[in-house]
Design brief:
Two copies of one chain form a homodimer. Chain A has 420 residues and is an alpha/beta fold. Chain A folds into three domains: 51 residues, SH3 type barrels (Roll), CATH 2.30.30.520; 193 residues, Rossmann fold (3-Layer(aba) Sandwich); 113 residues, Rossmann fold, CATH 3.40.50. Helices cover 24% and strands 24% of the residues of chain A. Chain A has ten helices and 21 strands. In chain A, the strands form five sheets. Chain A has an eight-stranded mixed beta sheet, sandwiched between helices. In chain A, helix 4 runs parallel beside helix 9 and helix 6 packs parallel to helix 7. Chain A is elongated and about 80 Å long. Chain A starts with 10 loop residues before the first strand and ends in a 13-residue tail after the last helix. Chains A and B meet through strand 8, helix 3, strand 18, helix 6 and helix 8 of A and strand 8, strand 18, helix 6, helix 8 and helix 9 of B.
Chain lengths: 420, 420
């Protein structure tokens, strides 16, 4: 093939095998087939095209090279400035086509470069905070990330977009919600269920929609934006404390639980607001990253051994239970939880049903739990209750204060009770 | 009010306050208001009617009093014989209207008597195996129940219906599936989200539909039958290994996960088959109730302390993990699981996403887990994998045999993999 000096991110016209394709040139990796060029079509889908010496690649528009410039050096007048903080995950990965395995590879800059439309929406600034698969995320990572977000917002970013692995994305969005507090502008965590070099990748649409949402919506909370349907029509914006990964592989894996999504972004650029949110303000952010990491989360099951939990509780400062139904555990487990509370270790009850609200006033077991001092987790997700309890215990260990804070809706994590 | 000698379960006409109501007389409890009579209307809804000395209650049809007769004494010719095995739970409870609390009260006989249509469908035989709230269910209860079911089937019951608390109903249905093996006729667990004396109780419709399903469908597996929609149109029949309580309070809380329901029963008596099932056969049942109860179920979360899990694992014979996404845990936790496997303690990986299949071949973390000897749980629910591992460890502790059995679909717990 004729040497064409095309760079990743350039819009190109490729003539090969008697056909012509127009799209964005995708990155070439260590494991890519040497004779295949991958182009992202306008539809968002990637195709791999086999090329030979007769093929021809023509650059029709150079990539704008706007990424990674220090703030203030951007050109283009009135476009708002968005920061992309890389953390790793599938959205920043590519497939090794020899083994089918997925490797972390793309830097935030490269990732952003694969979505040329971004340069028409915003000035971009990107930074890699760390690059890990999200199952390895821990409290220290949450702290670094919250600090990095605060810095970007305080330097004037109109919004911060965090590409993140999907495995623990819901935990991180909850952690950011509590650590960042009343932020003046939006923070949007975005993931991909399929890596950016796969034909059906949701990376492109999710990144683009996240940028559009930051610019178009007058919203200032921590959100999660992910593919909304099995087809390619829309992405949903979820509140960071109300969202959960509910499918191992589908692109529409993320769903709001006990809440409706905040907005829906169609992939053509339209935005539909579905529920109220906090509006943009001015002011600086001070991330409050104090967190007690020795908090446990246990899902109850029949025959759960109370002695094991008793032993385990010695190493914990607090515990979130995901009980059955309205928030129940066995009689023997009620005793263990009572002992924990008596030792000044708060216990919060949520439900493994996920949907619906715990209610400890209906059955004897529930009332026994209340008498034992167990805090009802209302309609909080078990994962959100865990992160919140970590955060609350980072600032107080006074039982009454822990209970007050756990029962108070701080970041939309508790929906208003509807009287039936 | 005039003394009417009406009994619970009788069809009555009540004249009170200038109005007339026809329906089934519901049980009167210790805590019921003395001046209120509760009648179940034909729609299945209960209404409470305030009565005074001018009110009039006329019995239009006596309850058939067919319940609790020893097998063989039933009359009525060709009606099939169904056994009702009481275990407790909301379906066998009533509300204390002074406190709003729910108490276990109704015996299986009383429960059955509140559904007079049953006597047109089947001969009924009822027995209370135990009466507990299902959060207190344990392995020993599963054993007693499986033995009781086997006895009823071996004595010729056309089907066994098990009213059960909803909290752990999905665990019990999985336990019955594995313990009972290839049963010749159906076993249907049925619960209620609202107690039988509440207007919107689902107890009536669920019991009736369970009986109809046993008689109408040529099906011989362990099923769960529960209300299917928020409205009162239908009930769904789920495979016992594929069902989970997914709402704390809604009547349609139970859903098939990674499967479609087996059948839908409309409340008028119609049946729609939705997916294949095992047909009725002849032959006796031998319940195999061996079970290793020292098996744990842990849901992974960021910052999970590997030392606590390491310590805890000393008291366990096996562990089911509900990992993130495709079945992942942190690097540190991979080490702990590897140690467990090396000690001959099987570890099975499922996903806390619930929907979808684990796949340990996509990411490095997954491949590390496979190298560590962790068994992929395919698309099994974490709860079903727990019960299955308990059952498998009850008959072998040979690692290769445990792995073989865990990967083999025994009771519909693993769906066939669809190649994309």
């Amino acid at each position: 093939m004729s040497s064409s000096k095309a760079s990743e991110g350039d819009t190109v016209r490729l003539k090969a095998g008697g056909k012509e394709h127009t799209g964005v040139l995708m990155p070439h990796h260590e494991f890519s087939h040497p004779d295949v060029i991958v182009i992202k079509l306008k539809s968002g889908y990637n195709i791999g095209i086999k090329v030979d010496e007769r093929s021809e690649l023509i650059v029709t528009m150079r990539s704008q090279q706007r990424v990674s410039k220090p703030r203030g050096q951007e050109t283009g007048g009135n476009l708002p400035s968005l920061s992309f903080l890389g953390t790793g995950g599938t959205i920043a990965s590519y497939v090794d086509y020899r083994t089918g395995a997925v490797h972390p590879a793309l830097k935030a800059e490269e990732l952003v470069a694969t979505v040329p439309e971004l340069s028409e929406i915003c000035h971009m600034r990107s930074k890699v905070v760390f690059s890990i698969f999200s199952e390895n995320m821990n409290v220290q990572n949450w702290r670094s990330l919250a600090e990095a977000v605060a810095e970007e917002l305080n330097e004037g970013a109109e919004g911060v977009i965090i590409p993140h692995g999907t495995d623990t994305l819901g935990f991180t969005s909850a952690a950011m919600s509590f650590m960042l507090g009343d932020i003046p502008r939006p923070v949007v965590l975005v993931g991909a269920q399929r890596s950016s070099d796969r034909p059906s990748s949701d990376s492109y649409g999710n990144l683009l929609s996240a940028a559009r949402f930051c610019v178009q919506a007058d919203a200032a909370e921590v959100f999660v934006l992910m593919h909304g349907e099995t087809s390619d029509t829309c992405a949903n914006v979820h509140r960071g404390t109300k969202v959960r990964k509910l499918h191992t592989s589908r692109r529409d894996a993320f769903q709001s639980v006990n809440a409706i999504p905040v907005a829906r972004m169609d992939l053509q650029g339209g935005m539909e607001i579905l529920s109220p949110y906090r509006k943009k303000t001015t002011g600086k952010v001070q991330a409050d990253t104090r967190m007690e990491s020795n908090v446990g989360l246990l899902h109850f099951y029949p025959g759960m051994n109370p002695d094991i939990v008793r032993k385990m509780s010695q190493d914990l400062k607090g515990l979130v239970m995901a009980g059955t139904g309205l928030g129940h555990v066995s009689k023997e487990m009620v005793s263990v939880l009572k002992e924990m509370v008596a030792q000044g270790k708060p216990v919060v009850m949520t439900s493994q049903c996920l949907n619906g609200r715990v209610n400890l006033n209906v059955y004897d077991t529930g009332r026994d739990l209340l008498s034992a001092g167990v805090i009802p987790g209302e309609d909080m997700l078990p994962e959100t209750a865990l992160v919140k309890l970590m955060w609350v215990l980072g600032r107080t260990d006074r039982p009454d204060e822990v209970e007050r804070l756990m029962l108070q809706d701080m970041r939309g994590e508790i929906s208003e009770r509807r009287e039936l």
